[in-house]
Amino acid sequence: MYHLQASTANAWLRSPALDNLQELELCSFGQRLPYPPPTPQPPPVMAFRFSETLHVLTMGDCHLPDDTAEALHFPKLKQLAFQRVSISEHSLHIIIGRGCPALECLLISDSFGFRCVRINSITLKCIGVCDSVEKRGIEFKELIIENAPHLKRMLQLGLPFGIHVSVISAPKLETLGCLTDVIFVTNKLVFNSIVIQGLRVDSLMTAVRTVKILAIHMDTHSLDVVINLMRCFPCLEKLYIASTGSGGNNLWRRKHRDLIRSLDIRLKKISWRYYRGIKSHVDFATFFVLSAKVLELMILEVHKDDYSEEFIAQQRKKLQLDSKASRDARFHFTPDWPHHSNSSFRVHDLDLADPFERNEPYKFRE
Predict the structure, then answer these.
(1) Pairing of strands 188-191, 194-197
(2) CB within 8 Å of 110: residues ≥ 6 apart
(3) Distance between CA 243 and CA 247 in Å, rounded?
(4) Strand 188-191's sheet: what is its strand order?
């Protein structure tokens, strides 16, 4: 329901045709819809008559008062999203705690009124967070996963402007991202004994072997940074890279000669946005072409102005694909295309086995 006046919205929501409603999206807006009022308003009262039957709920562009939040109870709700919502920290914890005892997916995007989100949930499987670019009121700055025994996916969407994430207990976490070293972003991840500032590994005592999928956004394309991340997460099977900079010196044959013998690279898939075919990019990619023995697929997205038969032929030769370490590896080149932004994630996307595949084109070129 998009920005209806409260009286109109409540009238619609009273309709018997909506009895036993299982999915509801309130007050979100899109590119073709009018923007919400500058001052967030409470959601329509009649929306909560479905609290006993809802499985999926998205609240957007509204203010959720404390007295309303404390009274909410959704016994069957599995997916919950707050998008551009004003809500206090106390109310937020009440809703995601005792208010939603069956909750599996939680999305908090561009919302404010709270500084810290603490997760203690035996049911939660996926969480996605996105800081608000437009600063309003108390800002979201910290996410703490205190106890989430079934959490599999933890996503930082868009560019997390200074959200610090601490993971105390998430023994089944498999998907992580998007970590970034973009210069104006100061995000930090503490995961058991691992401390990662931006993309720089500041502390590593015990590796995390559960993480299989990692997404990163690199300002400066660096093979050393990725190798250190693989040490943190040695069982990585999928790596998603977006790089906007040209990169530095990624020569590796002498520098990492001993490492190649000892590092067990388990990557099966590498997806790289903004591959330019310049020397630092070629050196970076060649490391995996010649070292990743179980690689199955490498996707290289290039600028549409560079994408041509000639460019692909040159790159295949530079990347030494005839000498690939994995006999079954496939290498696909694709022109850049209009992506779904990470910040456009919907709560349904969190429940995908690999949420980052949604950003990929359907057709490739070998």
Answers:
(1) antiparallel
(2) 83, 84, 130, 131, 132, 133, 134
(3) 8
(4) 116-120, 142-147, 164-167, 188-191, 194-197, 200-203
Per the listing, tokens 């290289």 go with 300
Interatomic CA distance for residues 83 and 326, integer angstroms: 43
> Measured between alpha carbons, how far is 144 from 213 in angstroms, rounded to an integer?
20
Burial 134-164 (b: 16+ CB within 10 A, else e): eeeeeebeebebeebeebbbbbbbbbbbebb
DSSP code of residue 175: E
- How far, in Å, CA of 366 to CA of 241, rounded? 19
Pair of tokens at residue 110: 């561009």
- The residue ranges of DSSP E strands in 72-224, in sequence order, are 79-83, 86-87, 105-109, 116-120, 126-130, 142-147, 153-156, 164-167, 175-180, 188-191, 194-197, 200-203, 213-218
Q: Is the pTM of this model over 0.85?
A: yes
Instruction: Note whether 356 and 340 are within 8 A (CB).
Output: no
- Tell how far CA 279 is from the center of its chain: 29
Say which residues have a Cβ less than 8 Å from residue 226's Cβ, sequence separation at least 6: 216, 239, 241, 284
Which DSSP state fits 171?
T
E strand segments, 148-268: 153-156, 164-167, 175-180, 188-191, 194-197, 200-203, 213-218, 238-243
Please report, in tens digits, the pLDDT of each residue of the chain (366 residues total).
Answer: 555 566 777 888 898 999 999 999 986 444 444 555 566 778 888 889 999 999 999 998 889 999 999 999 999 999 999 998 999 999 999 999 999 999 999 999 989 999 999 999 999 999 999 876 666 778 899 999 999 999 999 998 876 557 899 999 999 999 998 898 876 666 789 998 899 998 889 988 889 999 999 999 888 788 888 999 999 999 999 999 988 776 667 666 566 666 666 678 999 999 998 888 888 899 899 999 999 999 999 999 998 888 899 999 999 999 999 999 999 999 999 987 655 455 577 899 999 999 988 766 544 444
